[in-house]
Design a protein that fits this description.
Layout lengths: L6 E6 H13 L14 H17 L3 E5 L7 H5 L17 H11 L4 E2 L6 H12 L4 E6 L12 E6 L6 E4 L4 H5 L6 H8 L14 H11 L2 H6 L6 H9 L1 H11 L11 H4 L5 H11 L10
Parallel strand pairs: 1-2, 1-4, 2-3, 4-5
Antiparallel strand pairs: 5-6
Helix pairs in contact: 1-2, 7-8, 7-11
């Protein structure tokens, strides 16, 4: 008996919501309902989501969310993401509302306290990617480490309908390294967006060169005396932060989340969605899902 192969879209919900909010807020398109409920992030979220469904034609969809700023990575490194400002006041009420919209489509909302959406996505990608095709929809380059023969990552670019899709076939051509080296790359060069430094003085170009030559950080460290003196000094000086940065960059693929494929099947009740859209006064977007 041949098992049906599904195409599962794992959506980085917060990435779509934030991108949606700022893409409209910078034009001062602060949409609100008659009762003063802000909806601009949700409005654009739905436009992004609709386009992704049309582009990738998934059979199943799951949406993953961050569950607050306090995660195990903060326990490892207190300054992790410490430079991020609080979300805009108009965006805050949309965090719960957008999940209601997602639920109206009968799409599971998945999140786990103390972990990031990335970890939930990584865990589900590993679970489903054994037998099915997985597409991760995000704007976060950290998720590129999840690329396998069965899992691709679609990075959203500016505008609607623009994706940079990473697969095992094109990954090296696009990045000069392989997915399994992504964690070591971030460990060496750090990540200014997430506020961890890696090895100070080593940027992306040098990090890629080291990984192309030695394969892994572990291999590089066994041959540290072969490196140029300047790089040796930088690595020895910041060795502990190199190790910490690798821990921060690594997506956990074994967190206690799961979702049955039947619950994730892309099939929704139009009238249920219509009621939710009417309540938020975005019913003109219903045509995107007809």
């Amino acid at each position: 008996m041949i098992m049906e192969q599904h195409k599962i879209l794992l959506v980085d919900g917060m990435a779509l919501l934030f991108r949606g909010y700022y893409s409209t807020a910078y034009r001062e398109q602060f949409m609100e309902t008659r009762n003063g409920v802000p909806t601009n992030g949700i409005f654009q979220f739905l436009r992004y989501f609709s386009d992704a469904v049309q582009t990738f034609a998934p059979t199943h969809i799951i949406c993953c969310w961050d569950m607050g700023s306090q995660t195990f990575r903060k326990d490892i490194y207190e300054e992790y993401k410490a430079d991020r400002s609080a979300p805009p006041e108009q965006l805050v009420p949309q965090f719960d509302l957008v999940k209601e919209v997602v639920a109206a489509f009968n799409i599971p909302n998945i999140g786990l306290e103390n972990y990031e959406a990335d970890d939930c996505i990584g865990t589900l990608a590993c679970q489903y990617g054994v037998k099915h095709e997985v597409i991760v929809l995000t704007g976060d380059h950290d998720l590129l480490q999840l690329v396998t023969d069965q899992t691709s990552v679609a990075l959203m670019k500016k505008g609607i309908g623009n994706y940079d899709v990473f697969t095992m076939t094109n990954f090296f051509e696009k990045t000069s390294i392989y997915p399994h080296q992504w964690i070591d790359l971030k460990g060496l060069m750090g990540d200014s967006a997430d506020n961890y430094p890696g090895v100070r003085g080593i940027g992306e170009k040098t990090a890629v060169k080291l990984l192309k030559e030695y394969g892994t950080v572990e291999q590089m460290l066994t041959k540290l005396d072969q490196l140029p003196k300047g790089i040796q000094t930088k690595i020895n000086t910041h060795l502990s932060m190199l190790n910490v940065s690798r821990q921060l960059a690594a997506i956990k693929c074994d967190v206690p989340v799961c979702c049955s494929l039947e619950d994730a099947r892309w099939k929704f009740d139009y009238e249920q969605v219509k009621r939710t859209f009417l309540n938020l006064e975005v019913d003109h977007l219903l045509t995107l899902f007809m």
